[in-house]
Structure formats: C-alpha cells, structure tokens
C-alpha cells in the first residue's frame, strides 16, 4: 500500500503527485490539508509533494509533517516542485521535521506562478514545455521508488540555509513572520467579479469566503496566489503598497485528463 500526500496552490504539485500516484501500484492520493491532525502512517511507500516557497516549506506543509508520524521502515520519498531551476532550500526544515527518515528526495522544475515584485508567471508555452520535461523526470523517480532505490538530490542552495533563512524579502524566516497576514493585501474589483466562487473552491486552505463580496478570512493564507490566478475575469489583485500583481500573467496548471476518481474531482481546483 502506498500513500502520496500533496499540497498545491495552482496545480504544479498536484500534477506531479497525480502522475506519481498513477505509476505506483495500490497508491492513494491525499490532499495534505485534509490530514493535518496527528496521525501515524505505516504504509510501505509514503510520498510528500509540495512547492518551494521562499527558499523553504509552505507553513501548512511544515505543520503537516510536524504533526505526522511516519514509520521508519516505510520508503519515504519527498518531491519539491519549484518555479525556477535554482530555487530550493528545503533541506534544513525537512531534517527538522523528518530527521533522517527520507529515503528519496528530488526537485522538479515546473512553470512559475509567483508574480509579485519584478517576477512574472511563466507563459503557457513554458508551462507546457516544463510539464513535458517533468514527465521524463517522474518516470525516473517512480522507477527508483518502485525498486526502493534510496537517493537524495538536494541542491547547493540547500546547504546555505543560514543565508536563505534570513535572505532579505525572500528568506523563509521573512516568509514565516510576514506572509500569513498578507491576505489583507488582496482586493476584488466588485464591478468585474461575476460571483462565480472559483476563488473560494480554489483556495487550498479554505481561507476565502463570500458574504455579499469576496472576503479573506485572515486565518491561514499561504500566499500561493491561487485566488488571483484562478479568477476567470482577473478581478482579484494583490498589492501591498509597492508590490503588485497588476498587469502580470495568470498561471493555472490543472489537467482534467488526469481526473479519474471521485476523490480527484474534489481536488479539481488544486
């Protein structure tokens, strides 16, 4: 029996987790935010798939790992998706959460959905190219997993955690300290909004509500930007006074062809 737990904002990590699950026998795909309470997992194979945020782990991923107990005899693999090839930096936090239980680790470069500051999201052409490139990597990864081949492919930046942790604006300590109140910086163009509620169903941490207008609940924002990217009329924007999404590309990476079960349908907005 195998289980893969994933967290995904705009679909990259969901794509990877689903494709991995399809290539591993007797595998169950589970949305990480549905399993946040303390649990013990003793499956033969356990996978963790998530995106890199600010040279580190999304807070919800760190919480899941800290509140989970994985059998030391399980083959535990961790896959981190990233939007640019030199991103990384998750090794230190993973070691704090999982000690030496990780059997396999690898990054996969996908399309970039981060478009605050001078960044912009990847074009559809780049997204599709990286999706195709990731398919070959996923095949290699699943071959290693199915044959229980242990391997950990961290990046150079993972060994510079003492720098990336406090890196100005983009270090994960800055991210942890500031980003979770950043939903105050989202706004909605009420004239453009069609009240389709896509932003509500697309938020991976259930942080958006509709009460006469779209509201952020100020409870658990991960700054994944899913609410911005998924809006079909681009009515949602992020602006913290000097950094804005205005005029940037939206990014969404969800392939309906991968939907095959009722459980997957519930994750269609992931």
Automatic annotation (TrEMBL):
The keyword Nuclease does not apply. InterPro entries: 4Fe4S_Fe-S-bd (IPR017896), 4Fe4S_Fe_S_CS (IPR017900), EFR1-like (IPR047964), Fe-S_Ferredoxin (IPR050572), Flavoprotein-like_sf (IPR029039). PROSITE patterns: 4FE4S_FER_1 (PS00198), 4FE4S_FER_2 (PS51379). Gene3D superfamilies: 3.30.70.20, 3.40.50.360. Keywords: 4Fe-4S, Electron transport, Iron, Iron-sulfur, Metal-binding, Repeat, Transport. SUPFAM superfamilies: 4Fe-4S ferredoxins (SSF54862), Flavoproteins (SSF52218). It comes from the Bacteria. Pfam families: Fer4. Residues 184-213, 214-241 form the 4Fe-4S ferredoxin-type domain. PANTHER family: ADENYLYLSULFATE REDUCTASE, BETA SUBUNIT (PTHR43687), L-ASPARTATE SEMIALDEHYDE SULFURTRANSFERASE IRON-SULFUR SUBUNIT (PTHR43687:SF6). This is EFR1 family ferrodoxin.
